[in-house]
Amino acid sequence: QVQLVESGGGLVQPGGSLRLSCAASGSSFSINLMGWYRQAPGKQRELVATITSSGMTNYADSVKGRFTISNDNAKNTVYLQMNSLNREDTAVYYCYVRDILVRGYWGQGTQVTVSS
Description:
Blueprint: E1 3-7, E2 10-12, E3 18-25, E4 31-39, E5 46-52, E6 57-59, E7 67-72, E8 77-82, E9 91-99, E10 104-106, E11 110-114
């Protein structure tokens, strides 16, 4: 059973920064994709960023230039550095991983609130 442990959410002022982490464990097969999605109140869950095991990244247009995704394959850990945060970034952020059998797993979510 794959377990995802997220950390790093919290309250930050507009213009501030946060770093999210997500560590995956228990996978019987190699993980080839890790990423972050978010869901704001009253909205659908949306892609934030993903990174493959080879380092290819994909970002939502709304976060390009502000967020950076990175990973540590040896630790099965993915990070999301979020800079220049604004109120529209307020959401629950979910870690997502996918293994080579194309099975996806979700974390429990971590709240990010941008407010003064």
